[in-house]
Amino acid sequence: MATPENIHVKAGKTLTLHGTRLSGGDNKPVICLHGLTRNARDFDDVAPLAAATGRDVVAFSMRGRGKSDYDPDYLNYHPLTYRDDVLGTMDTLEISEAVLIGTSLGGIVAMLVNEAAPGRVAGAVINDVGPELAPEGLARIASYVGKTAARFDSLDAAAAQIRAVNEVAFPGETDEFWRTFARRTFRENPDGSWSLDYDPAIGKALAEVGPMPDLWGPWASLKDTPTLVIRGALSDLLSPEIVGKMRAAHPGFDYAEVPDVGHAPMLTEPAAWDAIKAFLSKLD
Length: 284
Hints:
Elements: E1 5-11, E2 15-33, H1 46-51, E3 55-60, H2 79-92, E4 98-103, H3 105-116, E5 121-127, H4 135-142, H5 155-166, H6 175-185, E6 186-188, E7 194-196, H7 201-208, H8 216-220, E8 227-232, H9 240-249, E9 254-258, H10 270-281
Parallel strand pairs: 2-4, 4-5, 5-8, 8-9
Antiparallel strand pairs: 1-2, 2-3, 6-7
Helix pairs in contact: 2-3, 5-6
């Protein structure tokens, strides 16, 4: 397996986004888009699996996350801005068309990219999100974004915190699972402490930036684009009722449900990855 290559691309006039690119072959490339407070490391296990299907895989951290620059204007932490960043990244990397794999916020961004530039989306994997968001899931997310303690003395302390927030979505997981989760969600500081790896101002943007753009139009735009929707069976953000409404607007999408997982599946679960692998095989 090839070693991931670090990439840096410009976003707008002043910001630089960081990501990784894994070379895999000449099939349709994949771009991985993470969730609200996450970063490109969420796809450390998914990217090699996708590359093994014969395609290049790019995973980048949206502005304000991971090693990407923080935006001095927090009002730019908005899905329409992220949409433009994706299209700009595709231009910079000379990717004319790609399969987008988007988790949560990343799935919303994938919808928006397809609406704005449908010829550039070869297929979309929408992970545990829809054009309507269940209020209980939104309330849970709003309760912690930007409000967690700034630093933790150890990785185990960081893992305990992230477990307290997310165990509802991953019941019964091991201590090592939560340490891995923490390594991908926190960054280690020079003094050995650990901090959440995103700009706390994202929480301020979530509260102040205004309503989410209407997503039913972007969702409907996928009718002519191969689409796979993945739902965690325990999800509090994408309910079965919302999936039913999505089916009415876009009858032809593929669907997989991941047992015993909430928001949002890691995509390496057998039910998720088997569905993604089958989906990608139709897009070679």
